Amino acid sequence: MLSDEDLIALPKADLHVHLVGSAAPHTVVGLAARHPGAGVPTDLRQLADFYAFRDFAHFLRVYTAVSALVRTPQDIEALVLGLGADLSEQGVVYAEVTVTPVTHTVAGIHPAELAEALGAGARAVRAGTGVELAWVYDISSSDGPAGAQSTLDAALRHPPPGLVGFGLGGPEQGVRRSDYRDVFAAARAAGLHSVPHAGETTGPGEVWAAVRDLGAERIGHGIAAAHDPLLLEHLIEHNIALEICPSSNVATGAVPSLAEHPLPGLLSSGVPVVLASDDPPMFGTSLLQEYQRARDTLHLSSRDLIDLAAAGIRSGFSTGNLPAVGK
Ligand code: ADE
Ligand code: ZN
């Protein structure tokens, strides 16, 4: 069985981690203290309670409150540096980090400043730790097609170095993925990879829509695919990986318990899967802990864990220097 040390030593990639959702608790309480009245606790114990989510909608409200604390390019750069240090400690060599430009524009950070702060942060992380960071610009569906258009404008006019993907997050219920078809087509035409969330809290129909309407090349979560053999076949045939974040799914109530998570079944179906962390401190996890929980609670074999790590490295979109693991 792989020890914790073995899991740390395994070169890993996190292909689904949100920048704001990666903020360490001490960073969040520090930001909250600078912005009293924003509704986010300034004390670590209260923050832990604040992160006890009743359901997915409650999680999104909390996420929005924390996002609103990020007000300056310096805040962005601090988040990147914190994430880089956390990843490095866990043996994560590469991450594709989701950033939601509309959230930061509304808070007063211009897209050009955002891109500069991300670039400066990534350079410092690379120099200090060797961890390589790339970016996914995503739309929250709560910002609608107008938000999608301004996200595309930010991506095209002010791309940070290492921008590789275009995503769609936020609420899923009642959101027609086809409303975002044109903006995803334009993003793909500009060379960005399509990586929408889908099938996290809804059914396989949304995953089909992500594939057909948005040209998805990887799917954020996509756990609903477990119920649709034809969809699994399609994902296998087109090599579309699911970014599986088990602790996230339990914390938001998408899955009743870790022991009931569909990851083992998805692996045996042969569908491409990568293991990811989503919003790790908010969900009381880290990428390393996802590997540990997959080993201890889901009883994945050493072979499965090694294959998952290799799939993570292989499924990234960066053209930069990555270790040859699993290539
Ligand atoms: N934004 C941050 N985390 C998210 C998640 N798990 N699903 C949808 N949108 C998100
Ligand atoms: Zn996510």
Describe the 3D structure:
Belongs to the metallo-dependent hydrolases superfamily. Adenosine and AMP deaminases family. Keywords: Hydrolase, Metal-binding, Zinc. It comes from Winogradskya humida. With 327 residues, the chain is an alpha/beta fold. It has a single domain, classed as TIM Barrel (Alpha-Beta Barrel), CATH 3.20.20.140. It has 15 helices and 9 strands. It has helices spanning 4-9, 25-34, 44-50, 56-67, 73-89, 101-106, 111-129, 144-157, 181-189, 204-214, 229-237, 246-251, 263-269, 287-296, 302-314, and strands at residues 12-18, 92-99, 132-140, 163-169, 193-194, 197-198, 218-221, 241-244, 273-275. The protein has a 5-stranded parallel sheet, sandwiched between helices. Strands 6-7-8-9 form a 4-stranded parallel sheet. Helix 8 (144-157) links the parallel strand 3 (132-140) and strand 4 (163-169). The chain starts with a helix and ends in a 13-residue tail after the last helix. The model has no long low-confidence stretch (mean pLDDT 96). The site of adenine has 10 residues, from loops.
Q: Tell me the name of the CATH class.
A: Alpha Beta
- The run of helices and strands is HEHHHHEHHEHEHEEHEHEHHEHH
Strand content: 5-15%
Please estimate the helix content.
40-55%
Average predicted confidence as pLDDT:
96
